[in-house]
Amino acid sequence: MRVLLVEDERPLAEAVRAGLEADGFSVVVAGDGVDGDWLAQEEHFDVIVLDVMLPHLSGYEICRRLRARGSTIPVLFLTAKDGEYDEADALDIGGDDFMSKPFSPVVLAARLRALLRRAARSAEPDPRLGPLRLELARRRAWLGTDELRLTAREMALLHYLVHRAEHVVSKSEILDHVWDEAFEGDANVVEVYVGRLRRKLAANPDVTIETIRGLGYRISGRTP
Ligand code: CA
User: Fold this and answer.
1) pLDDT confidence of 182, banded at 50, 70, 90?
2) pLDDT of 175
3) Distance in Å, CA 25 to ligand 1 centroid
4) How far is the centre of ligand 1, averaged over its atoms, from the C-alpha of 50 (Å)?
5) Cα-to-centroid distance, 108 and ligand 1 (Å)
6) Which pLDDT belongs to residue 71?
7) What gap in Å lies between CA 215 and CA 130, rounded to an integer?
8) CA 223 to chain centre
9) Distance between CA atoms of 9 and 31, rounded to whole angstroms?
10) Which of 33, 43, 64, 192 could form a disulfide with 56 if both were Cys (CB 3.0 to 4.6 A apart)?
């Protein structure tokens, strides 16, 4: 199980990392909000642990952005006991659990395992399209018997296309669903990501993403 830990207090981050690794988790640490937000978007994790008060971007903002993109990844907030934030805020913003500092890494590991079990139980049925299967709870994708190596963003894009399979989906619909509502960059980013997905799907001709000129994209699958 892969954990993203976003925590700017280095000694605490290292203690938590050591505790979770001893418990069998694989841990990636980000030391500020911007790095944490980027990793949460681009890499695959099973659960995210967010400190609230972070340099550059708060834990709440990272969680808000994740939820705005439709991510259901379990999020646990670390809250300072004397902080100005209320723990209810952590849950309102889309967090699944919180722990007040100081805490025991052993208890944190147990809480993370509980979150992962809950996420697996509430998972929707895995979407399928021809030989393609998305395993949403574990955020993994399979093409036949081969696992696809996808970033979190590529996974979100593929999930959205498969959800709308056999329909033409416009770039702006994709931007609204897969990127942040507030995304103001170049819409050509969609082309870049569709290109990456096509290359990763190229091994199997039974799944194709067509470009429909002037309209958007359409994913289709044939059951071999
Ligand atoms: Ca902090």
Assistant:
1) low
2) 87
3) 22
4) 9
5) 17
6) 84
7) 24
8) 28
9) 8
10) 33
Backbone φ and ψ of 22, nearest 5°: -65, -25
DSSP single-letter state for residue 217: E
pLDDT at site 4: 97
Please check whether residue 152 is in contact with residue 41, taking contact to mean a CB–CB distance below 8 angstroms.
yes
3 state SS of 129: strand
Q: Could you give the CA distance from residue 128 to residue 146 in angstroms, rounded to a whole number?
A: 14
Contact indicator for 66, 94 with CB cutoff of 8 Å: yes
Model pLDDT for residues 117-141, shown as the tens digit of each residue = 888 777 667 889 999 999 877 778 9
Asked if 210 contacts 220 with a C-beta cutoff of 8 angstroms, the reply is yes
Helices and strands in the chain, H and E counts: 8, 11
Q: What is the mean pLDDT of residues 90-97?
A: 84
pLDDT at 155: 92
Q: What's the CA gap between 124 and 77, in Å, rounded?
A: 24
Write out the E strands in the chain: 2-6, 26-30, 47-51, 75-80, 97-101, 128-129, 132-135, 140-143, 146-148, 207-212, 216-221
What distance in angstroms lies between residue 55's CA and the mean position of ligand 1's atoms? 7
- Rounded to the nearest angstrom, the distance between the alpha carbon of 8 and the centre of ligand 1 is 5
C-alpha of residue 6 to centroid of ligand 1, in Å: 9
Domains and CATH numbers, the chain: 2-122 (3.40.50.2300), 128-221 (1.10.10.10)
